[in-house]
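Schema walk-through. Below, the input block comes first and the output block second. Nothing else is stored per chain. Lengths vary across the set, and this one has 101 residues.
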Amino acid sequence: MSLATLGLPAFAAPEIASGDRWLQGVDQSGCLSRADQFIQDIGVPSDGGEIDRTGYFDDGTFRILCYAAGSDSMVIVFSAHENSSEVASDFMQYVLNEIAY
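--- output ---
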């Protein structure tokens, strides 16, 4: 008997949105500090690396990456939601706006 005949449910891929923004006058460390503050403000579990922060919700996740560009930085946000591309896109824009303030 093969796995195909067992009738296993198909796993739906999450809906994903991404975007980026230059942070003029904000270095990589400042970008990461803003990401940390944002995650603290919304109160979700998170993980962090050298250049990234990842936050977790029950129905999705997001990742914030901060890249150095001299005295500036670029923030890139990926947002995933189990069911809605609109929720993923709206949340991604929200994160970018909050970090770029």
